[in-house]
Amino acid sequence: MTETVSRPTLEAVAARAGVSRATASRVVNGGDGVREPLVERVRRAVEELGYVPNQAARSLVTRRHDAVAVVIAEPETRVFADPFFALQLRGISKELTAHDSQLVLLLTEGRDDHTRVGRYLAGGHVDGALVFSLHLDDPLPELIHGAGVPTVFGGRPGWGDGARPAVYVDSDNRGGAREAVRHLVGLGRTRIAHITGALDQTSAVDRLDGFRDVMGEADPRLVVEGDFTPAGGERAMRELLERCPDVDAVFAANDLTASGALRVLRERGRRVPDDVAVIGFDDMLPVAEQTDPPLTTVRQDIEEMGRLMARLLLRDLDRRTGKQGLDGGPAGVVLATTLVRRASA
Questions:
Q1: Range name among 128-137, 234-243, 253-262, 269-278 with the lowest pLDDT average
Q2: How far apart are CA 174 and CA 79, in angstroms?
Q3: Nearest alpha carbon to residue 156 among 334, 337, 307, 311
């Protein structure tokens, strides 16, 4: 048999602090209009008693659940295998934790999951949503819009009709790609190929556009579609070598793609960077510093993207619940990228 220990109540906090229950409730739930000496007495009583607010009751006062859904439009096999998602989740988690808010992770394995996610968001379980890795035909944005929850997107949304305004955080994918390809041109490379990411995602399209900004109407055989995975990089690199055996440089859409390309080049006896220079995108240290040779890549601050997404959402939630003024923030934030030079190019 175990003895049930009663939890301290708000009434006990009020009695310990020598204030009314209403005053204790305002302090505990973040309300205004309480003099500072009384605030300190209530806080001290909360600490001494070990009082934990009832979340349901608190939500009635604050109109907040202190929970945010993070929706990743990828299957779990991809999410847990790709360090990109871990870095972005770490940034989001740090920011939410600093504001005493919980992260609720939602993944989409298939079309049925989209309906489930939309239903969950519409059910009032969370204050808002952070959504990333969207694909162009993804129904999630429409479902989220229908749920009516405040949302920040990771990456530039794929719609441009202005009918659905969106707050988003992205990196300068096109500018970063331009810098990478210019570096390869500066090395004297003339047969520069590009292994794209999945072209139903705006980041991949922007990086392809950056490649074309520098290379113009390059030989179409030098562009092969990948999918942001090592296996996709291997497949695309084999196809490139069959199409264009004289390729002397590769700009890969991300570091994982580049790692796959490097493996194929090593198998085929192509020296990197002597025969073929290789550049990736992301600068994910668990990948870029451990490839052979270490990878020259375009750095985007993935963790900071996550933090900023959470910060923008929390600011919007504060504005909606009257904790901030009604000044609007930027609809889209685009973070700068930098080229990190290592041994592969």
A1: 128-137
A2: 24
A3: 334
Structure tokens at 186: 């500066």
Q: What distance in Å separates the CA atoms of residue 345 and residue 280, rounded to the nearest whole number?
A: 10
State the Cα–Cα distance between residues 33 and 18, nearest whole angstrom. 17
Q: At what angle do helices 173-186 and 202-215 cross, to 10 degrees?
A: 40
pTM for this one?
0.80
In 3D space, the residue among 267, 252, 229, 253 whose CA is nearest the CA of residue 344 turns out to be 252
- If one counts every other C-beta atom within 10 angstroms of the C-beta of residue 153, the result is 24
What pLDDT digit, counting tens, does each position of 68-125 carry?
999 998 888 888 889 999 999 999 999 999 888 899 999 887 777 888 888 888 888 8
> How many whole angstroms from its chain centre is CA 20?
44
Q: Is residue 17 within 8 Å of 38, Cβ to Cβ? A: yes
Q: Cα 189 from chain centroid?
A: 34
Cβ neighbours for 19, distance < 8 A, ≥ 6 positions apart: 38, 41, 42
How would you label 300-326 residue by residue, b for 16+ Cβ within 10 Å and e otherwise? bbbbbbbbbbbbbbbbbbebeeeeeee
